[in-house]
Amino acid sequence: MRTVPNSLHDEAASRLREQIFAGSLPPGSFLDEAALCERLAISRTPLREALKVLVAEGLLRHEPRRGCFVAEVTERDLDEIFPVIALLEGRAAHEATCRAGDADVAALEVLHLRLQQCAAEGRITDYYVANHAIHEAFITLAGNRWLAQVIGDLRKILRLARLQQLHAPGRLQQSLAEHLAVFDALKRRDSDAAESAMRTHLLHQREALRDVARNQQSRLNP
Fold this sequence. Notes:
The chain is mainly α.
């Protein structure tokens, strides 16, 4: 079968999404449609369709008679999102534990060894990469596309805040211990324990972010 190319508005949405996550379109910034059309080499119609997609995802906000702005994540948003994503990722860990086979456990073992090495060497950027891979692995193993979709949507919002919770004192080792607790529960095929441990892990991320905010000027709205 031939691959069907992305539509113009899908491609434009993808490029704008990448620019938002990279910070080249920072929170609160206004999106000038004329300038974007020129930069992306597209007409107004596909651009406006792309903007509608990003508004629906929560990455942009639309103000009548003013246009679109990059969404800003507040401390209240984080307080509301983290308990929800903790429940969802906890459920993903539960379902992953029920479905994981020996080969899956072996693959997760490799990821967790990588995570441990990054923590031991203090390589925070690489730790984030390994951490993300582990969370994605649990979601994939859960095999629940609805769960994956909702978690993915919430993660997009959290990426707007450009969170750095591992910079909180002691958080790196705490995060590692939490991950190992989830993995240990999965290896024991204890789905309830895996769910509880993953939920705790996400809630502790929120607590760590409060510590970071207290010790440096927050990048979030008050």
